[in-house]
C-alpha cells in the first residue's frame, strides 16, 4: 500500500482529454490519483508517469464504468493502493452523432451504458466508501441547452446524469458529502477536434462571448475547486464551464 497523500481521488476516463487534465490537476493539488482507463493503457501509464515525475502519487486502473464488476475493481484498486477514497470524479464518457430518425440503437445503447449507467454505478460504489466530507463530481455537457440535431441520445444521457446528481446529493444527506456536475462547453480535445474543419472549429469557438474553445485545463480548474475545501458549500449543482456558450 502506497502512502504519503492525505486524500485520494478516482478519476474515470483519466487517460486522455478532460479526464487526463483533471487527474493531473488533482495530483498537483496534492491528492493521490487513480487514473482509470477503458482501453488505452499506454496513455494511462503516461499520465501516471507525468504525475510521479512531478512528485505526485498515482496508479492506473483499467475498467469499463458501465460494467459493475469493473467498477468494483476500480474502487478495490484504489483501496488496495491507498487505503481510502475521498474524491470520485466520473469523467468517462462517449459520444457519437445521429438523428433520432436514424434509429441507431447500438449507438444509443453505448452512450447510455457509459454516460448514464456508468455514472449510476460509480455513484452506487461511492456511496458505500466515501467518508464524511467526501466529494463526487460527474461530467455533464453544456450542449444540453442547444438541442442540436444529431445530439439526441448524447443529450438524453447527460440530462439524466444531471438528474442523478441532484438526487444523489439528497440521498447523502447528513454525511457532509457534496455531489455536483461540471458541464463543459466545446473543449479542444482530440475527440472534439476530430473530423472538423478549421472553419467549423472557428465558428463553434466564436459562439461563446470569450471567443475561444475551452481547454481541458479549464474544466480541471472547475473540478479542483469543487473537490477542494473552498467548494464545500456547493452541492447538488451543475457548474456550466463553457465561457458563456449556453
TrEMBL record:
Transmembrane segments: none annotated. It holds the Pfam family adh_short_C2. GO terms for molecular function: oxidoreductase activity, acting on CH-OH group of donors. It comes from the Bacteria. Residues 7-185 form the Ketoreductase domain. Keywords: Oxidoreductase. Belongs to the short-chain dehydrogenases/reductases (SDR) family. This is 3-oxoacyl-[acyl-carrier protein] reductase. It comes from Paraburkholderia phenazinium.
Amino acid at each position: 500500500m502506497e502512502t504519503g497523500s492525505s486524500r485520494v481521488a478516482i478519476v474515470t476516463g483519466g487517460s486522455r482529454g478532460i479526464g487526463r487534465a483533471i487527474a493531473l490537476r488533482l495530483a498537483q493539488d496534492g491528492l493521490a490519483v487513480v487514473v482509470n482507463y477503458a482501453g488505452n493503457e499506454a496513455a494511462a501509464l503516461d499520465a501516471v508517469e507525468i504525475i510521479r515525475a512531478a512528485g505526485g502519487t498515482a496508479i492506473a486502473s483499467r475498467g469499463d464504468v458501465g460494467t459493475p464488476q469493473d467498477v468494483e475493481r476500480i474502487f478495490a484498486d484504489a483501496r488496495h493502493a491507498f487505503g481510502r477514497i475521498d474524491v470520485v470524479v466520473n469523467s468517462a464518457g462517449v459520444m457519437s452523432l445521429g438523428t433520432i430518425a436514424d434509429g441507431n440503437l447500438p449507438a444509443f445503447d453505448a452512450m447510455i451504458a457509459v454516460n448514464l449507467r456508468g455514472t449510476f454505478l460509480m455513484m452506487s460504489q461511492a456511496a458505500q466508501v466515501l467518508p464524511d466530507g467526501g466529494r463526487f463530481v460527474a461530467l455533464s455537457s453544456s450542449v444540453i441547452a442547444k438541442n442540436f440535431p444529431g445530439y439526441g441520445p448524447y443529450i438524453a444521457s447527460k440530462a439524466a446524469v444531471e438528474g442523478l446528481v441532484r438526487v444523489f446529493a439528497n440521498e447523502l444527506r447528513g454525511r457532509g458529502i457534496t455531489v455536483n456536475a461540471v458541464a463543459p462547453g466545446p473543449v479542444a480535445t482530440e475527440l472534439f477536434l476530430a473530423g472538423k474543419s478549421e472553419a467549423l472549429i472557428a465558428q463553434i469557438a466564436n459562439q461563446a462571448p470569450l471567443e475561444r474553445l475551452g481547454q481541458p485545463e479549464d474544466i480541471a480548474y472547475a473540478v479542483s475547486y469543487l473537490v477542494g475545501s473552498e467548494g464545500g458549500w456547493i452541492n447538488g449543482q451543475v457548474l456550466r464551464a463553457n465561457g458563456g456558450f449556453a
